[in-house]
Specification:
By secondary structure, the protein is mainly alpha-helical. 68% of the residues lie in helices and 5% in strands. The chain has a two-stranded antiparallel ribbon. A hairpin with a 2-residue loop joins strand 1 and strand 2. Helix 8 packs across helix 12, helix 9 runs antiparallel to helix 10 and helix 9 packs parallel to helix 12. It is globular. It starts with a helix and ends with a strand. About 7% of the residues have low confidence.
Length: 259
């Protein structure tokens, strides 16, 4: 229940602030492009056969882990042999990106800073991360109770629809999105590998803290991956935007418009 509430809070937080940023005052088509991009994201995630097939494959793999002894054995190995003071300390930091009350304001602040400073990379990262969170949240909200997996401290990870609501890790999903988005935006293979590796840490922190089984953390990360992939291959909010600039030239200043 807590994970679902976090997703809802984040989605609402992401939908409101973009309408108050200065860019809307300067560009009347901005809201229309955002709405079109989000609509395209939802269509790509929930209607495209390719994405639904990949989601089905991920759920099938999760079912094998959750409904056999695999999750329990992984938990026992982690808690008895891997968990210690060092992993607990690292976990406190690793789970921060998966906290909605932290991630939401970061997106808003990054977008505003990117706009004011003219940094399109930061602006695009914040917008794409927000869109990916928004498009994947409904699937997570539905799958959490539908799968019915419980927390390690409360029961088994076996899928029993509506018995519990922890079938997908909200931390793994929310925390994976910004780092996977960053990985998709860079062409540097080393940075890309680093970002993908870091994107798994919020989910691993939940396993370390005995708050989720491995299958639940893995499904949360995979949901983040699919969401980021849909956004990366979808519409760009900048498409169709007219950018104006002052350009000095001998004897005066001119105004340019770039579509």
């Amino acid at each position: 229940m807590i994970a679902r509430c976090r997703c809802v809070v984040l989605c609402l937080a992401l939908m409101v602030p973009f309408g108050t940023l200065p860019s809307l005052a300067d560009d009347s088509g901005f809201a229309t492009r955002v709405a079109g991009a989000v609509r395209s994201d939802f269509e790509g995630f929930y209607l495209e056969k390719e994405n639904l097939t990949r989601l089905g494959i991920g759920l099938a793999a999760g079912a094998v882990l959750a409904n056999t002894s695999a999750d329990r054995e992984i938990r026992e190995f982690d808690q008895e042999r891997l968990r210690g003071h060092a992993t607990n300390s690292a976990s406190k930091i690793a789970k921060i990106p998966g906290t909605a009350l932290v991630t939401g304001p970061v997106y808003i602040g990054a977008y505003g800073a990117g706009y004011l400073l003219g940094n399109k990379t930061v602006e695009t990262w914040a917008m794409r991360s927000a869109r990916a969170t928004l498009v994947g949240a409904p699937a997570g909200l539905v799958l959490q109770p539908l799968l019915g997996g419980d927390r390690p401290e409360s029961g088994e990870s076996h899928w029993r629809p509506f018995k519990a609501d922890h079938g997908v890790s909200g931390h793994a999903f929310i925390g994976g999105v910004p780092l996977i988005t960053a990985a998709r935006m860079t062409d540097d293979p080393y940075l890309k590998t680093a970002f993908y590796g870091l994107s798994a840490l919020p989910g691993l922190s939940r396993i370390n803290d005995d708050a989720h089984y491995f299958s639940q953390a893995a499904l949360g990360w995979f949901l983040a991956y699919l969401s980021c992939d849909v956004v990366a291959n979808g519409k760009d909010v900048e498409d169709g935007r007219v950018a104006y600039a002052l350009v000095p030239f001998p004897g005066g200043i001119g105004v340019t418009a770039r579509y």
